[in-house]
Amino acid sequence: MPLQWFLKYRPKTLNEVENEEDAKKELVEWIESWLKGKPNYKAVLLYGPPGVGKTTLAEALARDYKLELFEMNASDSRNLNDIRTMAERASITGTIFGIKGKLILLDEVDGLNARADAGAIEAILELINKTKYPIILTANDPWDPSLRPLRNAVKMIELKRLTKYPLKRILKKICEAEKITCEDEALDFIIEQSEGDARYAINMLQGVAEGYGRVTLDMAKNLVRRKDRELDPFEALRGVFWAKYYWQAKSAVTDTQIDYELLMRWLDENIPLQYDNLEDVWRAYDALSRASLFLTRSKLVGWDLLSYTFDLMGPGIAFASLEKKKPTYKAKWVKYQFPQYIQQLAKTKEIRDALDTLLRKIGQVIHASKDKTLNDFLPTFIIYYRKYQEKLDKELELTEKEKEVIKLISSFYEGSKAEIEEPEKKEPGKRRTTSYRRKS
Ligand SMILES: Nc1ncnc2c1ncn2[C@@H]1O[C@H](COP(=O)(O)OP(=O)(O)OP(=O)(O)O)[C@@H](O)[C@H]1O
């Protein structure tokens, strides 16, 4: 799989990092204070919205100052022990780490409070306390009350949202390096949608450009959506079927608020419209059916399994088409259909409601649940009804809609001429039975 452009074109040096001049200056002063052996703060917290260059800055700083970067995602609770171990090791200069000159990067510390990882903040504080190496923490939102002890222990450095011109320079450089013709208005459009998030803008550019070799305003308008906006079902489908990368297909199914079962219906309806090749259709349905299995399993066993449902619904269906491997592949424009199943449900709502009340009425008389009445008793009831309609109408106080339902169900049994036998005359000592026999 080709490398994602935001990684491929991640700035290597501080100089290449766009926009964040104040932050760069503060970072340089801080690291130099460390190198002189008199750190003004043991750790800094880089904070700001996603995709503005927090991780990038830390990596560029390490490269510029030839520091070995020790990077870890703080919000992953599995790392709690690693943080503790690191705190132990970081308290000893050089010897265990070996090489002198390290920079410790703990990404996404604001993910910690959400996990209610009580011990993690203390572990980081301990690390900061003991460390003999500079530490950079990053966070999107450092203002959560639970992070206060951390805020007090570090130097806070803010990163601003990227503005239009720096973002445009980043995108233009990539277009040149990838030899892609990009319309200026298209880049402006992408930038407008990305809300100052460079990673988002680069991802969108890659999504439009790859495979087409050019980016026009029209294409951008069709394929790029505003950041943080939830996808409607049509956009989610397009996101899956048009995806060229695994992550695109996966985010199409996770960025929508449509219930996953409902999204499955949408995919189910539209797979044969999107894919022409029968084997592609078969593979897509295979992925969808497995997604459905994992959904049931996740309900029964644990929600961890839900991520496989998304993998199968998104990328599984997106890459069911082998055509996508061809460099010339272009997704077919399809007018996606509303799932018939839902239309049917809407159309038959009245009937289903009447069936529901009918089953309850019968169930009350025979002391059975709705399901049992439906599955075990309804066929027998229909046979009784043919014979004792008037009586049953009255006794069960059937409404016109309920009678209509009985008629409808009765028509399914039309072929069967089953009838009720008259109860036999009661003879002393003989049990009374009622049965029905099939009239041939
Ligand atoms: N200031 C910048 N100059 C140049 N490229 C940038 C800049 N900021 C971000 N990028 C690009 O966006 C990508 C994502 O940036 P990065 O991972 O550093 O963001 P972040 O602020 O750490 O985001 P998050 O909070 O989501 O982790 C980088 O790989 C790089 O390609």
UniProtKB/TrEMBL annotation:
UniProt-annotated binding residues for ATP: G48, P49, P50, G51, V52, G53, K54, T55
Span list, region Disordered: 417-440
Short name of one Pfam family: AAA
Superkingdom of the organism of origin: Archaea
Key words, A-Z: ATP-binding, DNA replication, Nucleotide-binding
Gene Ontology biological-process entries: DNA replication
Compositionally biased intervals (Basic residues): 428-440
Function: Part of the RFC clamp loader complex which loads the PCNA sliding clamp onto DNA.
Protein name: Replication factor C large subunit
Designated gene of the protein: rfcL
